[in-house]
User: Fold this.
Amino acid sequence: MEVRVRYNGKVVATIIRPLRELDGRPAVTYKKQLWLLVKDSIEIGPLVTIGPAKAEPVRTGATPRGLNADGVRQSTVVGATPPKPAPSEDRVAAEELLTWSGDPIAEPWEARLIVDAGPGTGKTHAACARVASMVNDGVPATKICLVSFTRTAVVEMRHRIERALKDPADAAGVKVITLDALAWRTNSGFSQQSNLTGSYEDNIAAAHRLIVDDSDVADDVARIEHLIVDEAQDIVGARAELLLALIDALEPESGVTVFADRAQAIYGFLEAGIESPSANFIDALTARGFRQVSMTQVHRTSDPQLITIFTSLRRELLVGARPDMANYVRAEVARLAHGDAGDVRDLDVAQLPANSLVLLRNRFDVLLASSRAGLSPHRLRLSGMPVCVRAWVGQMFWDYMPRRISRDEFEKRWSDRDIQAPHNCEQAWSRCSEVAGESASIIDLHLLRKTLSRSTPPMPFCTAEFGTAGPILGTIHANKGRESDIVRLFVQDPIGPDESGEELRVLFVGATRAREQLLVGKMRSYGGSNLNGRAWRRAGTRLQVEVGRPLDIEPSGLVGRRYFKGQEGALAAQQAWFSTPMRQGLVLRAEESLGWKFSLSDGDQRLAGMSERFRAEMMDLASLINKRINWFGHGRSIGLRTMVVGPDSPQADQLLEPWRSSGFLFCPLLSALSVTKPRSL
Assistant:
């Protein structure tokens, strides 16, 4: 909840905190202490009238922003520039962390900076240290906004900020968010026309209009005292315009820190007259008076071969002076690698260490390599994959029908069911209480369902990848900003014409994911085609089609009345998934009794039904190739996740009990290039 912090009755900060208890009364933490909550506020100072005598100092030992050392609010003269206080020891220490061997990033918080930072130079560390130092120095956490590129990066940054703060609970107040989520929040908070059916581009455009045209939105944006933007080189087009509008709406004294690396600009939405995908946004910031500083020391690795790729090869890419840059970059990456990864067709996933990262260029190529791996444990890191709420959530609650659960009952179920999770019972309770705690000893499961059924549930409940164990297979684009001890990078031979240089930057990004060892192999890219984000291709007389997109399977297909005659059949299917989550040889068949929707079975037992959306996309694909599609073989599941149905969702009415009341069910991690019968084509 949002809590106002008052000193002598005046609001000096606004924080976000979970509800706690103190002597049986509601309370929240602030500066590592519990404070009683009165309505929506806590009082941290004595309620006395400020007169000739000094007011007593703040009890926590910290001076809220806007108060002097005696706890008295300082007067402000409009137009005057207040003197800067001497930096505290904490700030000096943080600035030393930010300096990175002399790079000029230790700047005042009101500075507006473009930080040029190559791979491995510590952009994430610097951004988080900058936020932590501001909060520790008195900037209200709720007035800092950090925009990152992915949800995974958002979670990592929040954790780092939390560890660096004097009071870790302050981390909840910092807005750490993706740009798309920021746009949606702006629309949903200020527009009556906002809806979940619009595309990301529609949401971005709508948020831009609101910031420019709506004074209430502009006033809300103006509350931000410091904005940090990560991976700015990949912010282009409408997203760049949105961020520029956001920056223009800030107060002149608000600070902005933008991290960018042109050598890693791999989202090539080139526009006429623009030199590179990042030129529009970065050049616009320069025109607004932003000052450029740089971070140069590589921290990701100490290996001299990798450091040469991170630094010297990066300079060559940025200068672009060599006449045959494509061959040069490919040759340098191969020369500086630690070995040959061979041909991707010979890749044996079962023999790879769990800390390995396998990178390929295209989605279809990753899915093909995954298919060859069969049931060898591995994880996928691709865009557009279903969010994976961990299976322990379903194991705990699938048959629990009351609305509330006590801590005692929670602990008993955890013990009785022998829950397997990456954290213990106490940590699991803490996660649930954080988002759905009604009190210190009660969790509201309706609120938990509402939270976990969102399209973007809290990451502490989710796996970072699609899958739970083994090496990671993914595209270079989806692994932007990630790193691994061992990287196997498979390069298409030849790359082909690349007038924009984007393919070379993609290769550079892939090579700089390694911390210890880089192995470079070759591959023939099958590329494949794309239909609404779904990969597919012709393979002789057959068709290979990606199965496992986010909406391919819905709750009704797992425990719904239409697919199962009664509770017994649905329960048998759920138990089958739980007992054997990794399966191959699954069959998808269009059935007349299901309105020509596809059933999913192991040949003997129906395990699920595919969604209406899946059926419609198969009809679109059939129309595209002018052939009938009614059967797929080689279906596969590589694990298990929890699917959650919100308490107010209309989907709940289609489910059998107990899932209709509980809202928690098991769902397989479907991932396959399923193959049609020859006669289907």
Observations:
- Confidence is low (pLDDT under 50) at residues 47-104, 269-279.
